[in-house]
Amino acid sequence: MPKPLVVNLFEMNCVSHIVHGLWSHPDNNRHRINDIEYWKELAQLLEYGTFDAVFLADVIGAYDTFRDGLDTAVREAMQIPRNDPFLAIAAMAAVTRNLGFGGTFSTTYEPPFGFAQRISTLDHLTNGRLGWNIVTSYLPNAARNFGLDDEIPHDKRFEIADEYIDVLYKLWEGSWEDSAVLFDRESRIYADPARVHYIDHASEHYKVEGPHLTQPSRQRTPVLFQATGSKAGAEFAGRHAEVVFTGGGTPEEVRANIRLMKARAVAHGRTPDSIKFLVRAAVIVGRSDLEAQKKLEGYRKYQSVEAALAHGQSHFDFARVPPSVKLSTILPKDYKGHWRRLADTAPEVTVGEALRQIGGFNEGRYFVVGTPKTVVDEIERWIDEDGIDGINLLQFLTFETARDFIERVIPELRRRGRFRESYNDGETLRERIFGAGHSRLPAEHYGARYRNNPAALKIPTQRLRFAETPADASIAPLAAVAARTPTIKRTAAPTALP
Amino acid sequence: MPKPLVVNLFEMNCVSHIVHGLWSHPDNNRHRINDIEYWKELAQLLEYGTFDAVFLADVIGAYDTFRDGLDTAVREAMQIPRNDPFLAIAAMAAVTRNLGFGGTFSTTYEPPFGFAQRISTLDHLTNGRLGWNIVTSYLPNAARNFGLDDEIPHDKRFEIADEYIDVLYKLWEGSWEDSAVLFDRESRIYADPARVHYIDHASEHYKVEGPHLTQPSRQRTPVLFQATGSKAGAEFAGRHAEVVFTGGGTPEEVRANIRLMKARAVAHGRTPDSIKFLVRAAVIVGRSDLEAQKKLEGYRKYQSVEAALAHGQSHFDFARVPPSVKLSTILPKDYKGHWRRLADTAPEVTVGEALRQIGGFNEGRYFVVGTPKTVVDEIERWIDEDGIDGINLLQFLTFETARDFIERVIPELRRRGRFRESYNDGETLRERIFGAGHSRLPAEHYGARYRNNPAALKIPTQRLRFAETPADASIAPLAAVAARTPTIKRTAAPTALP
């Protein structure tokens, strides 16, 4: 039986997410994000199409480094305005039964106790359909929204995240035993106090007494998502992540990343298949290759290079240099990253070429345009040659992209046995990804040590430590990052471009 | 025209809220709180009944001081398990159009930036139907869930709250001008950067750069609710609150509280009618007075004195003393508060009498049992004699209490012109309470100074300062507190019993 494809829609509660400028397309619905009807319509469309999940990225700061201010981001609605992801998920949960959800939250700025209870509440409300994308937040403005003067260094953020998530596991897995809730009206015992525990967590950054205020939800711990493009990120994923949005611009890079992270998972006592790998994918489908190409050309008319530069936090204003100038002659000496390497290795490359890349749709390996046959042929290569498990479908137009995929791509995937015929009604998100009976973290996962095991709450745990060094060359950054981020402050490789 | 009544349902995302023990009643639905269908059913019932709003209390710690542990609270489901209120509101918003919502959040432990964006998101998703109940959190365990060793003293918490809410106003009112969002696809300007502002807040406890990431919602600032039983609370309400859950066991006390808070509002430049006053009310209705009385007797069978003692954080175990013993002979010397005063002024009062009060339904002024006529006669007295504007309806059984009110009390209120015939479709919560056209904070409200006025963001504001002293005798605590809280640690009067 051929390996099936996991299909998530890539969303964010904002007007312009990652396809810069297309909010201004007359057929786009993205300006409706403030309206609950948008989310209900989207959720019901995706459930009609039997998507696995809708995945919401997030940021908690504005992109205000390009041209030293907010102007470009605000004009282009580039992730500002942006709203909370989890409240939209709660609204979508009310009008669906099977669609899964993933939401992004940062471990860096808000206390774990508050987050833990919100997530448990939402895993209850979705009846176990929830995933959490773990991020540590990379915008300087985010730091300044939460009382800091500047960002915490990249690897330090991962150290904090490793403590943070340990608090969460103790609350989600350890605080209430499976047998705690009795709901015995006759004897008047709702829960057995002997099976509800304080967690008494104390580590460098967190001190949390507990108990968890929420009783265990179906999954207890939501499905743990992560996007990695750094050595520290890969180490973190090895211990914690269950679904990884992997980077890399070429099949070789993606395969290498997957190998590396599987190896890290094994090093943490997990099985190699305990992590599923998703790539961000662009799929433009038409009844003919020409129709699909025309659709792409139609999208291109609305692209914004400036929004892409703002998103990339560029410290060099490519857009204000004549396109014919050679990059190598004009790039500042202290400029680091992708464009520096390109300028050094290919001195003839012009600013115009750089701008085409920056303002483009990141048209690398996971970008396909054509008939359903063309598209699914390509998707099958991603699965079989690169070893991916699924995609996070990029939206050019909301809701056109999802509709096209549902009406044209999914039937073809089904014909080839690459996509389920229908939902298994009532399954959790973790069961959908890892199979029936797998609603909870597997026993060998780090977080499972606390489950029904109050003694484990008292054992000090070995924290992950990440050296304050640039990422290892053996992990390729997310393709989006490589193409769109002309320079990155302080850290050699960002963890994810939301 | 007679003064109409505001009717909120008093809810909390927990199994046993404030009517102790009744979760064990066979007709109660409270154990269903983890199920989204509970919230959908409740919201649609209340909207069918044209309730003004459903109001959700909250706590972020366990009641673990009684008998030095969690046992009683966990056995009795006494606000543990408890889930997040705002996620339930988002789910309810998806299946209603007019019902208002109030949710509780504490200003003490989580950063204002994260909260500000969640509330703005929810005001968008509800299309302006949101209220926020401002609390500062009074449980020692809550403090220990957020890294502290013990509670911050009462009045200090209000000082922090006054800074916290100033950050919120700057984000909600000041960061985006009304004219900022252009949504101009042709010119490709989503918003005008000249009208989106950093807030650059810096005060003793908070440093927040902004801008707000969410564009202005219909109400900008949600309707501000507060429950007060302290002098500091009254001062805070005078500046900030728009709806106050007022305390006091007698009409005189309630009238005095209302007078005091109106005076504080006036001292802060507001009109006397800028605050609406709600009381927590218990209404048990039957087709005859006898039927209603029998219903009450039926509820009594499930009452739990021990849960009430746990809720009151009692440091003296009334339940383990023979009921015939006189309170004055057995109450510890250092015991403070209501029972101390009672023991001193009425030395003949027995422990049995104290237990009847503690375990009772707080059957004071705002407790009525009888036919619709009996009930509404009484409610009219509350409105006309005591000067209240509305009620927070206590639930004995979910959904029986709300159904009874809808089917039997609302028709009688309508006959007397005390309740609207239908919703004004599409109005905001603030309009429902303060009239058409009043979706935003009124101009004279402290928070409105920042609206469309970026210069105001740069003016340092005069913070409220509350002396570290016991509450002034001129404000009577919430009735629930007086009856149920045998002793209160550190602070002379708690702000609210959630």
How would you characterize the overall build of this protein?
The structure is a homodimer of 498-residue chains. With 498 residues, the first copy, chain A, is an alpha/beta fold. The first copy, chain A, has one domain: Alpha-Beta Barrel (TIM Barrel). Helix content of chain A is 36%, strand content 13%. In chain A, the strands form three sheets. The first copy, chain A, has an eight-stranded parallel beta barrel with strand order 1-2-3-4-9-10-11-13, surrounded by seven helices. In chain A, strands 5-6 form a two-stranded antiparallel ribbon. In chain A, strands 7-8 form a two-stranded antiparallel sheet. In chain A, α10 (305-311) packs across α13 (351-359). The radius of gyration of chain A is 22 Å and the shape is globular. The two termini of chain A are 34 Å apart. In chain A, 60% of the residues are buried. Residues 468-473 and 480-496 of chain A have low confidence and may be disordered.
User: What is the oligomeric state here?
Assistant: homodimer
Average pLDDT confidence of chain A is: 92
| Whole-number count of domains of chain A | 1
General form of chain A: globular
The most extensive contact between chains is: A-B, 80 and 80 residues
Structural class of chain A: alpha/beta
CATH topology of chain A: TIM Barrel
Termini distance of chain A?
34 Å
Corresponding CATH architecture of chain A:
Alpha-Beta Barrel
Strand proportion of chain A, as a percent range, falls in 5-15%
Low-pLDDT stretches of chain A are: 468-473, 480-496
> What spatial order of strands do you see in the largest sheet of chain A?
1-2-3-4-9-10-11-13
CATH class of chain A: Alpha Beta
Order of helices and strands of chain A: EHEHHEHEHHEEEEEHEHEHHHHHEHEHHH
Main sheet record of chain A: 8 strands, parallel, barrel
Helix fraction bin of chain A: 25-40%
| Count of extended strands of chain A | 13
How many whole angstroms does the radius of gyration of chain A measure? Answer: 22 Å
Q: Give the number of helices of chain A.
A: 17
Assign the CATH superfamily of chain A.
Luciferase-like domain
